[in-house]
Amino acid sequence: MAHHILREGLQDAEFLNKWTNVPAAKLIEHLAPYTPEQAEKASGVKTSEIRRLAVELAQAKPATILTGRGVGGHQNGVLTERCVSLLCAVIGNIDIPGGNCLPRVLDLGEPALKTSFSSSPQAFSVLKEGKKKAEVFLAYMANPAYANPGAAEVVQILKDEKKVPFLVVADTHLTETGALADILLPMATYLESWNLETRPAMDLAPFVSIRQPITAPLGKSLAMGEVVLDLGRRLGGDLAKAMAYTKSEEFIDQVSARIEGIAAGGGVQGLKKEGVWIQTGAKPSYRSFEKKGFPTPSGKGEIFSKRLQERGLPAMPVYEPIPAHQDLKEGDLILTIHRVNVMSPGLGNAKWLAEIFHANFLWLNPRTAEARGIREGDSVKITSKAGTLTTKVRLSQGVHPRVATLAEGLGHSELGKIAKAKAAKTADLDTSLVWWEKEGNGVNPQAVIPMELDPIAGGAVWNDTKVTVTKA
User: Fold this and answer.
1) Per-domain residue ranges of the chain
2) From CA 345, how far away is CA 361, in angstroms rounded?
3) Apex CA 360: angle with CA 338 and CA 364, to 5°?
4) How does 347-367 read in b/e, with b if 16+ C-beta sit within 10 Å?
């Protein structure tokens, strides 16, 4: 699309030449091989459609391009995201009204945390290889033994005391990871905790919001803020002085006082009353790069990345085929993971949601199923190099013939009786009414997703799993 826009002269030449580190003329040279005809061969999307969409996008200015795990969850995820960003730059849709805007947030003075890993899957990949070991592994509100790709391998790593000598799990439920812990810390939920938050503002007016408890924590559970303050006091010395607060609310009051507008509005008491503070006098402003440049070493939008070049990676946006797609054999399918609107990996023990969704079928195209002698409702075996699952099939024309897709969020072996589809007599009468107990609690897709990563950012490769599907 970028190739066609440049060839038709529809690019924003001023933005490219002034605000990126690759001028339009050099970019045309780089994009020469990426013709719509070549793209059709790789993607199956017709040349005429690629050209039409390219022209429409360039002429529709402003326009916004949104991506998600469907793009990023591949081995070439970062490279593809760079190509999408390049397309935004070619048409000049960066930080303009209606375009892809740069984030606006407020600095709460939080210290930057340094880590050796960019993601949890990357950490487990390194531990698996035996290059490093974790003296202490803290899983805070995270359940890698269930939610990470290669879940069975994650369990074995966490059990291996040569790789993880000491496992601490801090969570609201007894999770699959918590069942392996040396120490299990019961944590308060977000409805029982204090916090300040500032996130990228959709209307470009920076804000700070407050999270405050609506009820006291159950049992001996604590909010993480209280845990950190208590640890600071116990460890003593300079840390105790820095953590000299009696409770989280007092700490939040001190943090909010650093921001002049919040202090003038009554500090934490004002936030408790209003819920959110919007930066005083803030109005949506655009083309922020004209005032302070881009947050890059060169101050420009870096189409050419020296940092990637130094790592031996492509410095310019390029297309690299996905290996799993290149060697698909007859009968192989690509398994993708999707999410339904009432379930996610952490909600399996929510009784009303579990009643709505407690069985995740494997979705197949009717032609794909027919070629394998599979009918709606049949039990099938899903096999990858990571493992095997058995579930039932649902057919849909909305699934690509070379794809199978499975919803995540089910198949728990822990998390609670509702998550395991087990009826129980408790003070809550609903727990004895689990009518779907005979149907089971579904399957966990992570059992067949290998522990593979995007080599640049270390993110999980969710959408590149080759599987075979046969009648069970």
Assistant:
1) 2-101+289-310, 191-278, 323-471
2) 16
3) 70
4) ebbbeebbeebbbbbbbbbee
Query: Whole-model pTM?
Result: 0.90
pLDDT in tens, 402-457: 999 999 999 999 999 999 999 999 999 999 999 999 999 999 999 999 999 998 98
Q: In what order do the strands lie in the sheet with 195-197?
A: 195-197, 207-211, 276-278
Instruction: Report DSSP letters for 40-52, one per residue.
Output: HHHH---HHHHHH
How does pLDDT run across 282-300, given as a tens digit for each residue? 888 899 999 989 999 999 9
Q: How far is CA 92 from the centre of its chain?
A: 27
Residue burial 423-435, b: 16+ Cβ < 10 Å; e: rest: eeeeeeeebeebe
Which residues are within 8 A (CB) of 119 and not within 5 positions of it... i.e. 6 or more apart?
Answer: 453, 457, 458, 459, 460
* Mean pLDDT calculated for residue range 121-145: 91
The token pair at 128 is 């698996």
Sign of the C-alpha dihedral computed for residues 234, 174, 164 and 456 taken in this order: negative
Q: Is the peptide bond before 62 cis (omega within 30 degrees of 0)?
A: yes
Give 227-284 pLDDT, tens digit per residue.
Answer: 999 999 999 999 888 888 888 888 888 888 888 888 888 888 889 888 999 888 888 8
CATH of domain 2-101+289-310: 3.40.228.10
Residue 113 confidence (pLDDT):
67
Q: Give the whole-angstrom CA distance, residue 55 versus residue 112.
A: 43
For residues 237 and 251, what is the distance between their CA atoms, to the nearest angstrom? 18
> How far apart are alpha carbons 144 and 167 in whole angstroms?
12
CATH number for the segment(s) 323-471: 2.40.40.20
Nearest C-alpha neighbor of 99 from the set 111, 83, 87, 107? 87
Is residue 132 within 8 Å of residue 164, measured between CB atoms? no
Scanning the structure block, which residue is given the tokens 């601490």? 168
**Cα(400)–Cα(101) distance, rounded to whole angstroms?**
33
Kindly report the number of other CB atoms within 10 A of residue 22's CB atom. Answer: 21
